[in-house]
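re: ur msg from earlier - yeah i can do the magnesium ion complex, just paste it... oh wait u already did. ok heres what im feeding in:
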Amino acid sequence: MSGALLKVEDIHVYYGSIHAIKGVSFEVNEGEIVTLIGANGAGKSTCLNAVSGLLRPREGNISFLGRSLTKTPPHRVVEMGLAQVPEGRRIFLHMTVRENLEMGAYTQHARGAAAMEDDIAMVYDLFPRLGERARQIAGTLSGGEQQMLAIGRALMSRPKLLMLDEPSMGLAPILVDEIFQIIADLHARGATILLVEQNARMALSVADRGYVMETGRISAWGTGKELLASPAVRKAYLGG
Ligand SMILES: Nc1ncnc2c1ncn2[C@@H]1O[C@H](COP(=O)(O)OP(=O)(O)OP(=O)(O)O)[C@@H](O)[C@H]1O
Ligand SMILES: [Mg+2]
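and the outut:
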């Protein structure tokens, strides 16, 4: 495919009269990890929700696989190959680990039961802890395990683009390392990922490219390396 997998062009998003996103543009190319970093309230989640169709930009355009998403309903966006792991995970707490993964495969039913088993095996390979806990009720998993399940469930839709909103939020440092290792593994397997993070250091370390958001705008962008080395970014987001 030529051109960007995801192209966001000069979008404006409002919550009622609040102008939350004020002309944001960014792109994600196939095989890349791209990160959006920025402080609380900068507009990162709003951007992801605009891409997945949960919010509609009032102006601007979003295209995926060369097709405009402006009028595409969220379920159709998932069928096209875009999966979002929202902030706060939102797994089905009263279902087992395995049932959660089965729910994630709902766009894939036409491929049959054997294909679903292969995909579940792929998720258990990536997250052995989930395989060990296949029958455990998801609400009893630890925070880190729930995050793994949320990512695993998103992978069950065989996404062409995986969007992760703050996967490290609320996790102990050792689990943060584990989640970022998994993100790096997914990248090595060819996944394309749009990663929203407040943990700027970790996010820029795994990302090919990044964009810094400040109050509804992009204030800086570059490769992960360039942003990690940028004095302004270091001062504002990396503790100097
Ligand atoms: N449902 C809503 N109604 C009104 N304002 C909202 C709503 N959701 C978000 N906002 C506002 O839009 C702005 C961007 O919020 P958003 O959640 O996108 O930020 P964020 O960068 O994801 O922050 P965080 O890192 O805290 O998750 C904030 O000022 C927020 O208060
Ligand atoms: Mg957010």
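cool cool. Residues 85 and 164 are 5 Å apart (CA to CA). ping me if u need the other ligands too
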